[in-house]
Specification:
Elements: H1 12-25, E1 29-33, E2 38-42, H2 50-61, H3 65-68, E3 72-76, H4 82-91, E4 94-97, E5 113-115, H5 117-129, H6 143-154, E6 171-175, E7 181-186, H7 197-209, E8 218-223, H8 227-236, E9 243-248, H9 259-263, E10 266-268
Parallel strand pairs: 2-5, 3-4, 8-9, 9-10
Antiparallel strand pairs: 1-2, 1-3, 6-7, 6-8
């Protein structure tokens, strides 16, 4: 077996920058250093974790977001953040923890700071506007009908769009124990790679109700959730668990070893294989 990877140790300049950011904006906080600016975001907890806010905001604001998010994102405070780790696995590249320390941040101390949160909010507003909400309050007769609704929300991928600019045809539907539709969302990853259907579903629900996903509810989704979405769904469930039913299996590695699969709270639609 190979050697275990050594944990990243931030340098003194990074720790000093973290100290200044926390002094100005508080913790928990996440940031990434670009050539021309320091992008940062704070967060009050799930579903507004700093890493998720930072990644959504940077992807909304920067045309070179893919390049920028290959750099290491630093997290300050917040303890162990499984959602942040999963977000980085899917929509960024590297994550490290940094402890603020007084000192000289050097050249990065002269860079302007840019708050990613307004851009993340803009992305969420667009996601909500881009998904019809007419079905909320209606009732579905069983998981099959709910998954049909999820597929209808996801639509059909534009065959003329470039692969990276194409929304995947994935929808998500939250229903209560009686089959009443509580919330809906669709994938808009073509415009923002972090805007998976489940992310928009959870954040939209919290924006409207300021509470976790209700106990006894189920998320019906077109495609098996990835690690980012699974971690967010588990963290946002009222009792620490959530039931998820998906129509199609995702063959990619990012849908393996998720928070849902490890807790055995997800399954494929009955009759599917």
């Amino acid at each position: 077996m190979g050697r275990a990877a050594r944990p990243h140790v931030p340098d003194a300049a990074c720790a000093a920058l973290a100290d200044r950011l926390v002094a100005a904006h508080g913790a928990p906080l996440a940031f990434v250093v670009a050539d021309d600016a320091v992008w940062f975001a704070t967060g009050a907890g799930v579903p507004w974790t700093p890493v998720l806010e930072l990644v959504i905001g940077v992807r909304e604001a920067c045309v070179d977001a893919d390049f920028l998010l290959r750099r290491r994102i630093y997290a300050v405070g917040g303890g162990d953040d499984p959602v942040g780790r999963a977000v980085v696995q899917v929509a960024a590249r590297r994550l490290g923890a940094v402890t603020p320390a007084a000192g000289d941040p050097g050249a990065i101390g002269a860079l302007p700071w840019r708050d990613a949160r307004p851009f993340a909010a803009r992305a969420r507003d667009r996601a909500r506007a881009g998904c019809p909400q007419d079905a909320v309050g209606s009732r579905v007769a069983g998981e099959g009908e709910g998954l049909d609704l999820a597929d209808a929300l996801g639509g059909v991928a534009d065959p003329h769009a470039a692969a990276r600019e194409r929304d995947r045809p994935i929808g998500a539907v939250l229903v209560d124990g009686e089959g009443t539709v509580l919330a809906v969302a669709r994938n808009q990853g073509g415009t923002n790679r972090a805007l998976h259907a489940e992310v928009s579903l959870v954040q939209g629900w919290w924006t409207r109700h300021a509470r976790p996903l209700p106990a006894g509810s189920t998320v019906l989704v077109s495609l098996q959730p990835c690690r980012m979405c699974a971690a967010l769904l588990v963290a946002m469930s009222d009792d620490g668990t959530v039931d998820v039913v998906y129509r199609r299996t995702d063959p990619g590695r990012l849908a393996t070893h998720t928070a849902l699969s490890s807790s055995r709270r997800e399954r494929q639609e009955r009759g599917r294989s």
